[in-house]
From TrEMBL:
GO terms for cellular component: cytosol; membrane; nucleus. This is Methanethiol oxidase. The gene is LOC113449228. Pfam families: SBP56. Catalyzes the oxidation of methanethiol, an organosulfur compound known to be produced in substantial amounts by gut bacteria. Selenium-binding protein which may be involved in the sensing of reactive xenobiotics in the cytoplasm. May be involved in intra-Golgi protein transport. It is a peripheral membrane protein. The keyword Transport applies. Belongs to the selenium-binding protein family.
């Protein structure tokens, strides 16, 4: 370990990060778009320190200056990719807006527990300088720049690209990608410089999914089904890996080991996890390693209900894989010691669309003998289902939030929109595997001052398993 003052932000290695301090606060964007509350989205600071008098409470709210942004995912101005640079500090949270295309730069360095707005990048800068819109994932780069993946052109047509921000001024510098060839869709991304590669994924065209999910859009070519491979050095789009038409591959995670030439991706609609890897020839390929079977149902949108894998992550020691099935309502933990044959070692149900007493009747289920009970914690029945997940650095606590995207929340879980989302904590057996709900932990965003809110992605101020990349 480097001595204090000899290093930049983050940790030297993923295993060093596992020895980092326990999280005391977390940040979550909270959304009011599509809820009926005409208020700006805001960034919530939540106390997760069990020794604190404000444990499980929102201790600060930072409202944005605009309404209907749809805050979604966030990232840092600097992370472990800048560990060797003593001039860098992890003190700005980059907060793109999925629908308005506005990008907020939030100062977390002045007061960790009470962030403030540092700068606002208006949509016009993204439109005119990059011909891109609908920003999604943010990663800091080792050279100090900040890169944000996007999902569309300014008209809402699908287009995979990347916006570069200056790491000091946060001005839009232009596009990262070069050449005329670009993917038809964008969403998430991860890079691995030691293998000269960046991988990006595909959700769909915002003009199709913005107001909700229509199955008819699948045949119109509105949704993606590929992993897109980029040359890290030349910034050129070089290869497509087909993981299934309309499979909607969302979150992509390389193993944390920077030497690793493999990782996993969760495909929402096909409810499959694929392992992607580098071939002996130097190209990239994938193989399906987990398949969640559909359930035959009555009283739902379609006659078969997919699990809808919406978030996925890997523990810092690259031993366990976690993901959420937003429709079925469960979180799963897999031992990935054998990379090609993940082994299910933990599972909990936290709501979902197939609970007993609900409008959906399960006719045939390859996995369960009966429909799960509604999930109740501290006297509250949880509406919605597990969606965004974040693992503590030491791998012992898994935090969960229930909102996916306000337009789809409204369609699939209207009661959650009325009552607000929640954040939960799962205790993890990080040795043998196993998941257990912490019955003492509940953050209820249904009780917010301006009305029920939809809380989304979870970030730790000191970095976490999905924001830090080692190079």
């Amino acid at each position: 370990m480097a001595k204090c003052g000899e290093c930049g932000p983050g940790y030297r290695t993923p295993l060093d990060a596992m020895k980092g301090p326990r999280e005391e606060i977390v940040y979550l964007p909270c959304i009011y778009r599509n809820t009926g509350t005409n208020k700006p989205d805001y960034l919530a600071t939540v106390d997760v320190d069990p020794k604190s008098q404000t444990y499980c409470q929102v201790i600060h709210r930072l409202p944005m200056p605009n309404v209907n942004d749809e805050l979604h995912h966030s990232g840092w101005n600097a992370c472990s990719s800048c560990f060797g640079d003593t001039t860098k500090k992890r003190n700005r949270l980059i907060l793109p807006s999925l629908i308005s295309s506005r990008i907020y730069v939030v100062d977390t360095g002045t007061d960790l527990r009470a962030p403030r707005i540092h700068k606002v990048v208006e949509p016009i800068d993204v439109y005119w300088k990059c011909n891109l819109a609908n920003p999604h994932t943010t990663h800091c780069l080792g050279n100090g720049e900040i890169m944000i993946s996007t999902m569309a052109d300014p008209s809402g047509n699908g287009k995979g690209g990347f916006v570069l921000l200056d790491g000091e001024t946060f001005e839009v510098k232009g596009n990262w990608e070069k050449g005329t060839k670009v993917p038809p869709f964008g969403y998430d991304f991860w890079y691995q410089p030691r293998h000269n590669v960046l991988m990006s994924t595909e959700w769909g065209a915002p003009k199709c999914f913005a107001k909700g999910f229509n199955p008819a859009d699948l045949e119109k070519g509105c949704y993606g089904g590929n992993i897109n491979v980029w040359d890290w050095t030349t910034h050129e789009f070089i290869q497509t890996i087909d993981v299934g038409k309309n499979s909607i591959p969302l979150e992509i995670r390389f193993l944390h080991d920077p030497d690793a030439a493999e990782g996993y991706i969760g495909c929402a609609l096909s409810s499959a996890v694929h392992r992607f890897y580098k071939t002996p020839e130097g190209t990239w390929a994938s193989e399906k390693v987990i398949q969640i079977p559909n359930k035959k149902v009555e009283g739902w949108l379609l006659p078969e209900m997919p699990g809808l894998i919406t978030d996925i992550l890997i523990s810092l020691d690259d031993r366990f894989l976690y993901f959420s099935n937003w429709l079925h309502g469960d979180i799963r933990q897999y031992d990935i010691s054998n990379r090609r044959k993940p082994k299910l070692v933990g599972q909990v149900f936290l709501g979902g669309s197939i609970v007993k007493g609900g409008p959906v009747k399960v006719i045939d289920d390859p996995e369960l003998d009966c429909q799960p009970d509604p999930f109740v914690i501290k006297g509250k029945r949880v509406q919605g289902a597990p969606q965004m997940i974040q693992l503590s650095l030491d791998g012992k606590r898994l935090y969960v939030s229930t909102s996916l995207y306000s337009g789809w929340d409204k369609q699939f879980y209207p009661d959650m929109v009325k009552e607000g989302s929640v954040m939960l904590q799962i205790d993890v057996d990080s040795k043998k595997g196993g998941l257990k709900v912490n019955e003492k932990f509940l953050v209820d965003f249904g009780k917010e001052p301006h009305g029920p809110a939809l809380a989304h992605e979870i970030r730790y101020p000191g970095g976490d398993t999905t924001s830090d990349i080692w190079i």
